[in-house]
Write a structure and sequence with these properties.
10 strands; eight-stranded parallel beta sheet; 344 residues; single chain; alpha/beta; two-stranded antiparallel sheet
Length: 344
C-alpha cells in the first residue's frame, strides 16, 4: 500500500450544466478563472483537449499552434499547474461524423490524422508526452456500414503515424463500449491493449480507465484496473460513478456505489499507482441544480471521498484479509469490509 496520489481534471468539468434535454443553467467561467480554482480545491494537474489549449487551431498554421500552446505553458507555470495530457477532440467536427480514423471518406481520415499530429505539437509545447485517444466515433450505428477488421487496422495505422511522428510520446487509449456511437471498435481495456500489438511500439501504448466506461461495458472498474496493472499498462484513470447501464453520467466518485469506489482506490494503492508519475483524474460533472458559487463541489467532493476511502483501505488489516481468504470464509470477509466502510 504505497501509492502516490495527485489529482487532475479538465476545464470541461467546470461547465454550464447543459445536457441533451436542457440548456445551460450556469454562467460560463473564463478559462483563466478555471485555472485559478485548481489549487484552491486541491488539484495540481490539468487535462486538455487540443482545442482547450488552442481554441481556433483548425484555422491556424502548425507554427501558430505551437506558439499559442507555448504561451499557455507559461500560464500553467504561473499557476503552479502541470498538463497531464492532451487529447485530439475529433468527435465534434463535421468531418468526423462517420468517425475520424475509420471514416469511409479518405479526406476525413486525413483530417483526423493531421489534427492528431497537431495535438502532439501542443502536448510537447505544454511539457507533457501523454496523448489520450478517446475513440468516440470510431464505431458504427449499423454493422454493415464498415468492415470491422478494416476499421481496427485503420485505427492502428493512425496510431502508428502518431508514434512515428514523435518518438517521445505515450498514447493512452480511453476505451468505451458505446455513446456517441451505437457500438465502438475498442470497447474495453483488453481491446485497447491488443490494439497496441498492431503497432511497432506497443511499449508506448497504454490505457486510461474511466469508471463509468467500464460500468457501461457491464464490467467492474477495479477489475479493469487490475487487468491493466497486470500488463503494466494503467497510465491514468478517470474516476467517477454511474447509475446503471445508461448514458455516461460522470457522477461524483463513490456517490452511487461506495464499495465499488473503495475497490478502485484499493487496487490503485496496492499496486503503487502514481509512483511513476501517473495522475488520478476526476472526470465528473456537477448536478444541474448546483448554483454558480457551488459548482465545483463535485470535484472537491470526489477528491475528498477518494482520500477518505484511501484512509479506510490503509487501516484494514491485511493479515485478517489473508486469513479469511485462506479459510475461504468470504461471508466473514464481506462483513469485515462492510464494517470498515461503516466505520465500525
Amino acid at each position: 500500500m504505497a501509492g502516490t496520489f495527485r489529482f487532475s481534471f479538465g476545464p470541461w468539468n467546470i461547465h454550464e450544466g447543459a445536457d441533451p434535454f436542457g440548456p445551460e443553467v450556469r454562467k460560463t467561467i473564463d478559462f483563466n478563472a478555471k485555472l485559478a480554482l485548481y489549487k484552491e480545491i486541491g488539484f495540481d494537474g490539468v487535462q486538455f483537449h487540443d482545442d482547450d489549449a488552442v481554441p481556433n487551431m483548425d484555422r491556424m498554421s502548425p507554427s501558430q499552434i505551437i506558439k499559442e500552446a507555448g504561451e499557455l505553458k507559461q500560464v500553467l507555470d504561473n499557476h503552479g499547474l502541470t498538463a497531464e495530457f492532451v487529447a485530439p477532440r475529433l468527435w465534434m467536427d463535421s468531418r468526423t461524423i462517420d468517425g475520424g480514423y475509420t471514416s469511409n471518406d479518405p479526406a476525413c481520415r486525413r483530417y483526423a490524422i493531421e489534427r492528431s499530429l497537431r495535438t502532439i505539437d501542443i502536448a510537447k509545447a505544454l511539457g507533457t508526452r501523454n496523448i489520450v485517444l478517446w475513440l468516440a466515433r470510431e464505431g458504427t450505428y449499423i454493422r454493415e456500414a464498415k468492415d470491422s477488421a478494416w476499421a481496427v487496422e485503420r485505427i492502428a495505422e493512425a496510431i502508428q503515424t502518431m508514434l512515428d511522428y514523435d518518438a517521445e510520446i505515450h498514447i493512452m487509449i480511453e476505451s468505451k463500449p458505446n455513446e456517441p456511437m451505437d457500438h465502438t471498435y475498442i470497447p474495453t481495456i483488453g481491446h485497447a491493449i491488443g490494439l497496441g500489438l498492431l503497432t511497432t511500439a506497443p511499449q508506448r501504448i497504454g490505457c486510461l480507465i474511466e469508471s463509468a466506461h467500464a460500468i457501461l461495458a457491464n464490467l467492474d472498474p477495479s477489475d479493469e484496473m487490475g487487468y491493466a496493472l497486470a500488463h503494466k499498462k494503467l497510465w491514468s484513470v478517470h474516476l467517477n460513478d454511474q447509475n446503471g447501464l445508461k448514458f455516461d453520467q460522470d457522477k461524483t466518485f463513490g456517490s452511487v456505489d461506495l464499495r465499488r469506489a473503495f475497490n478502485q482506490v484499493r487496487i490503485l494503492d496496492k499496486h503503487n499507482f502514481g509512483n511513476n508519475g501517473e495522475w488520478v483524474g476526476l472526470d465528473v460533472k456537477a448536478m444541474r441544480t448546483q448554483k454558480d458559487n457551488v459548482a465545483c463541489k463535485h470535484l472537491s467532493n470526489s477528491r475528498n471521498i477518494f482520500l477518505k476511502l484511501l484512509e479506510i483501505s490503509r487501516s484494514i488489516s491485511n493479515e485478517m484479509i489473508n486469513q479469511l481468504r485462506n479459510e475461504r470464509d468470504y461471508e466473514e470477509l464481506d462483513l469485515y469490509i462492510m464494517n470498515s466502510l461503516l466505520g465500525r
